[in-house]
Amino acid sequence: MRETIGEGHPTCQLRDILDRVGDKWSVLVMNLLGGGPKRYSELQRAIDGISQRMLTLTLRSLERDGLVERTVAPTSPPRVDYALTPVGQTLSAQVSGLISWAEQHRAYVAASRLRYDESSATGPRSGGVPRLAAGRTSES
């Protein structure tokens, strides 16, 4: 019989946070805001492929979670800036590490996907991704 995990369980709490910060748009927004406050239009221009609606939803969710703050300057027209909160800044360092890892290993992951897809198209898989020497990547 399976054990039911309730909302108060640490796994559920972790999943809730990862659902928020683990989606591709939140990671990209937080990475950009790690460089300092940005206006909405700056964020939209910098994030290729994000719709206005998705950027708005992402910023609202990050603000709701206390990771981003929205500041409206009393000018005409009003100037709206988005910045990381102190807690958001602590997460931004982790996000930067994830992005660095993705950039460093992009070619390896792409090659692995290609090998997998080719072997899946020709029949049953045999063993999976080739192993590399310890401490090496395909780009080393």
TrEMBL record:
This is DNA-binding HxlR family transcriptional regulator. Transmembrane segments: none annotated. Residues 118-140 are annotated as: Disordered. GO terms for molecular function: DNA binding. Residues 12-110 form the HTH hxlR-type domain. It comes from Nonomuraea muscovyensis. Keywords: DNA-binding, Transcription, Transcription regulation. PANTHER family: TRANSCRIPTIONAL REGULATOR, MARR FAMILY, TRANSCRIPTIONAL REGULATORY PROTEIN. It comes from the Bacteria. The keyword Amino-acid biosynthesis does not apply. Gene3D superfamilies: Winged helix-like DNA-binding domain superfamily/Winged helix DNA-binding domain.
